[in-house]
Amino acid sequence: MKKEIVRYGAGERTNHWAVAILFFMAGLSGLALFHPALFWLTNLFGGGPWTRILHPFMGVAMFVLFMGLVIRFWHHNILEKRDVQWVKQIGDVLNNREDKLPEIGKYNPGQKMLFWVLLASMLVLMLSGIVIWREYFSHFFPISGIRLAALAHAVAAFLLILSIIVHIYAGIWIKGSIGAMLHGKVSLLWAKKHHSLWYKDITRDKK
Amino acid sequence: MATQDIIARSATTTSASSIRQVEEVAKLIDVSKCIGCKACQVACSEWNDLRDDVGQNHGTYDNPADLTADSWTLMRFTEHENAVGDLEWLIRKDGCMHCAEPGCLKACPSPGAIVQHANGIVDFNQDHCIGCGYCITGCPFNIPRISQKDSKAYKCTLCSDRVSVGLEPACVKTCPTGAITFGTKEDMKHHAEERIVDLKSRGYENAGLYDPAGVGGTHVMYVLHHADKPALYNDLPNDPAVSPMVSLWKGITKPLSLMAMGAAVLAGFFHYVRVGPNRADEEDEAHHEAAVEQVKKKSNDASVKTFDPNQR
């Protein structure tokens, strides 16, 4: 019988996957307009005009739900001084030499940095997205602002997608992580190995 | 038979059908000959079968107040007081300039929604338009307009339908003073030179041709009496160019960022292949920990070496 502890509650998991689904919808529809080689992706959304109509709504929904994740998780993601050591040992991180790494709380510094990059990208996407939302908002802004927003939107989307590629791969790489977000539980050993300080916190509370 | 004279096509990274060579055409608008009668606006409306809404008077002669999806050309009136203190009534026929390097086409994300013909005409194909408005973002002259009725972008076609069968654009045909002429771009430049000589002889020493190099030249050109100050003519851009922001947004950064995303996915895959998954396997780990404990107890014995498979 495996010993398991809860890492994510049902609310957190639902919130996460709702954002994930919207990320794929907004992301694929955005990529369709990002490069001609990906214009075929508009077919997934009912053609070019439908992609143009739906994309901003999916983006706003993603942003709003992502704010839910921010409220739930931001206090676990504050970078600390001791996180520097982990970053310095990134070679050990990438080569599975976790025994050499400093102890980790609920999130490691890589996860924390991901959190802040995601938040920054989402904020830029939301603000620039309003400016280039031709149907309702563009007429409130000068053309130079619209051009800057179009560029910022593409740059932020690029950063977001790159970060999510890293995020998804980390889930595939660190066995047990996907389970943590799917059914909420991790093994005691998983917690001890990857997040020893968090493990100590949790087990101390229970005693 | 498909069109064979498309030299540029929006959101298309390979050549369009472009084997047919034709001479570049141009419309020349001689501002010094324009009397502001708006016959060109009416001709445009008639030929293209468009009827804009009757709007409000905005305190100027401009009517309508701005270009719209139904008004593809517009007389813009400026009352300019010159250095001597005289009033000059500067009237400019505004509309698409048919740039050699069109910002609208560069910005458009929909394949084939904007095409550039070998004769220089930049044409919108509303069948392929998705209504995103990127053409407006890309245009240095603020020309395209999205229709409220169908959410498609519209602008002057340079009467591509008339030109393709050897006719001049409707506005040229109707202009009562000969202020608008049409022909090959070379011929129009020659004609402009003659007009400029005439204007200079009549005291307009800064008269000149407006064919801005920043957009590679245009296929709608102006003869201006004050070519040193194009902005006098209701903010005609002095030095128009596709904004560097648009070039960066739609230029080399796009293929580079796609490659970076692909590289990130590949990097992950090969990391998995080379380093492998990171497991916290319960059985193995428990077994391993017990073994390490035993070894630690015996660590005084120099012959016993610890062995950690993760450190191989």
Automatic annotation (TrEMBL), chain A:
The protein's required cofactors: heme
This protein's record includes keyword Kinase: no
Transmembrane annotation, as ranges: 21-41, 53-74, 113-133, 145-172
UniProt xrefs under Pfam families: Ni_hydr_CYTB
Subcellular location: Cell membrane
Domain of life assignment: Bacteria
Topological type in the membrane: Multi-pass membrane protein
Record keywords: Cell membrane, Electron transport, Heme, Iron, Membrane, Metal-binding, Transmembrane, Transmembrane helix, Transport
Coiled coil start-end: none
An example Gene Ontology molecular-function term: metal ion binding
Gene Ontology annotations for the cellular component aspect, listed alphabetically: formate dehydrogenase complex; plasma membrane
Family: Belongs to the formate dehydrogenase gamma subunit family.
Name this polypeptide is given: Formate dehydrogenase subunit gamma
UniProtKB/TrEMBL annotation, chain B:
SUPFAM superfamilies: 4Fe-4S ferredoxins
Keywords tagged on the record: 4Fe-4S, Cell membrane, Electron transport, Iron, Iron-sulfur, Membrane, Metal-binding, Repeat, Transmembrane, Transport
Pfam families the record matches: Fer4_11 (PF13247), Fer4_4 (PF12800), Form-deh_trans (PF09163)
Compartments reported by the entry: Cell membrane
Organism the protein comes from: Pseudomonas duriflava
Cofactor stoichiometry and binding remark: Binds 4 [4Fe-4S] clusters per subunit.
Molecular function GO terms recorded: 4 iron, 4 sulfur cluster binding; metal ion binding
Domain 4Fe-4S ferredoxin-type: 25-53, 87-119, 120-149
Amino acids binding [4Fe-4S] cluster 2: C44, C156, C159, C171
Job description of the protein: The beta chain is an electron transfer unit containing 4 cysteine clusters involved in the formation of iron-sulfur centers.
Protein name: Formate dehydrogenase iron-sulfur subunit
Membrane among keywords: yes
Cofactors demanded by this protein: [4Fe-4S] cluster
Classification via CDD domains: FDH-N
Binding-site list for [4Fe-4S] cluster 3: C96, C99, C104, C139
Keyword Signal: no
Predominant localisation class: membrane
UniProt biased composition (Basic and acidic residues): 285-300
Binding site for [4Fe-4S] cluster 4: C108, C129, C132, C135
Binding annotation for [4Fe-4S] cluster 1: C34, C37, C40, C175
GO cellular component: plasma membrane
UniProt record, GO biological process: cellular respiration; formate oxidation
Sequence segments annotated as region (Disordered): 281-312
Superkingdom field: Bacteria
